[in-house]
Amino acid sequence: QLQASGGGLVQAGGSLRLSCATSKRTFSRFFGAWFRQAPGKEREFVAAINWNAGYTYYSDSVKGRFTISRDNAKNTMYLEMNSLKPEDTAVYYCAAGASIILSNIRSPHAYNYWGQGTLVTVSS
Predict the structure, then answer these.
(1) What integer pLDDT is reported at residue 45 of this predicted model?
(2) Measured between alpha carbons, how far is 37 from 89 in angstroms, rounded to an integer?
(3) Rounded CA separation 6/86 (Å)
(4) Which of 21, 92, 100, 122 has its CA 20 to 30 A from that of 112?
(5) d(Cα 59, Cα 9) in Å, to the nearest integer?
(6) pLDDT of residue 117
(7) Which of 39, 37, 13 is nearest to 118 (CA)?
(8) Which phi and psi (to 5°) does residue 24 adopt?
(9) How far apart are CA 105 and CA 71, in angstroms?
(10) Shortest CA distance to 70 belongs to which of 49, 90, 92?
């Protein structure tokens, strides 16, 4: 029910903007997040945002470089990625959940809905 897009190949230091769109009319009430999974690694938390964009949360590895945002009028969530590094290479997934406890926002198991993933490749 979520559609992620915007991935691609970029050189180190470059930028990309990922989008996550949904037709789900209740998206505006959901907690949103981005996760990523590199080859051979577990899915890891990247960033999260509460329903009205009043609060955002980031992993230490992307803090200061990535920005999560949302436009509830468009049922879309975004991930602006700047100063990209080769270690940011991964498939990026968007996720949404109706009842998220703050202590669980970094766990993929807390989210009910997932996008199909979009590949981000950062070359050195």
Answers:
(1) 98
(2) 9
(3) 17
(4) 122
(5) 22
(6) 94
(7) 37
(8) -70, 115
(9) 20
(10) 49
Tokens in use for 108? 């993929």
pLDDT in tens, 49-64: 998 888 999 999 999 9
Mean pLDDT in residue range 91-116: 93
Distance CA 109, CA 82 (A): 27
For residue 37, CA distances in Å to 16, 33, 34, 99, 101 come to 17, 14, 10, 23, 23
Name the residue among 91, 96, 99, 76 with its Cα closest to residue 122.
91
Is-contact 90 18, C-beta < 8 A? no
List C-alpha distances in Å: 72 to 26, 29, 119, 120: 9, 9, 24, 25
